[in-house]
Amino acid sequence: MEHAYGVFHPVGGVNQLSKAMAKVVQEHGGAIHLNQGVKLYSYHVASTVGLMLLPILAPKTHRELEADAISLGIAMQITNILRDIGEDLERKRVYLPKRFYEEGLQSLRKYPISSQLPLKGAAHLYRAILEKIRKEEYRVFTEKHYVTSLQKQTILTSIL
Prior knowledge:
Number of strands: 0
Helix content: 55-70%
Strand content: under 5%
């Protein structure tokens, strides 16, 4: 796909993402039922995006950051899953999440300065959604959890 459409990425991310999405749809009808499946699904739909961005975000250190970028992508996708679990249940999609934020952020200082703040900001916003879900006693079937604009502003200001 990358070469056919003139889109190229040094680690082949577009192909990986496209193939993974097609595989999930074909094999599971868009539904994931096992924890390992959630991790694999999260890798394919989120971590591959991070891997595609790594050479842009951290051109000199992208190879050593791959494992942590994968963890961060998984963490963000699992947070999305938790946030939308009520809607997903209605659509007969069930996911079982795990924690990956600490792993994903442990090498943040290895990114170029220009990439550190946007990545840290996104991770902290997603982690705030996860904390809100926990604080609200996981009422994900009746409530959609999100971070308000004021909370976003506070979180982003706090990491500067």
